[in-house]
Amino acid sequence: MSPLDQPLATARDLTRTYANGVNAVAAASFEIRAGEFVAITGPSGCGKSTLLHLLGGLDAPTAGELHVDGLALHSAAERDLTRYRRHTVGIVFQFFHLLPTMTALENVMLPRLLQGESPTTVRPKAEALLALVGLADRATHFPHQLSGGQMQRAAIARALVGEPKLLLADEPTGNLDTAAAAQVLALLEEIASQGRTTLVVVTHSAEVARLARRQLRMRDGGLMQEP
Ligand SMILES: Nc1ncnc2c1ncn2[C@@H]1O[C@H](COP(=O)(O)OP(=O)(O)O)[C@@H](O)[C@H]1O
Ligand SMILES: [Mg+2]
Asked: Is the CB of 18 under 6 A from ligand 1?
């Protein structure tokens, strides 16, 4: 069987109840296959970001099960979760979260430097990714010298530098003007079409959702329809 037929992620009755009693994710069950491009959609407050954080190993479920790439995230030891966050996933946020005192190139290099790799080996990889996202000529610019769309493309390059199996993005075009959003969209589509990375994008944008091969529609923490 091709690895593309295997589920990369499997959630069963996945639940995240916050201390205030809110069921941000409520008994959600779904599968995401390797190489898929999935959009998570739904009204504000329905639990999209919470679900993405669970997939990224940034938050832990309070009930149910979540397996990604063979790791049981719901019961994993902190050591395994750290490895998972560093090696298996890359995350893109609405507000970019680039470090302001580092250049675009340094921001992209950082995840691998933190893993102990030498700048000499990381630099060419980071430069190639900046070229991929159309920022070859912005490598030495600091975030404040970049437009919103350029910052988001740098953030996408940073998320890809660890060669993640799973790329997660939370409203990646939510803070961009139409032209910049279109560029980020084209980039996501290109990444998805290469098929090496599974892509899960939380979005309000009908256009982003349309690009995805499948939508997980959320309401009040649950999923509206099964894959
Ligand atoms: N840290 C938190 N503590 C308590 N409630 C939260 C927290 N984060 C989010 N919520 C609540 O959980 C629900 C889902 O939030 P969220 O996942 O951010 O939704 P979305 O991303 O779809 O807008 C909302 O009702 C929100 O107010
Ligand atoms: Mg959100």
From this structure: yes
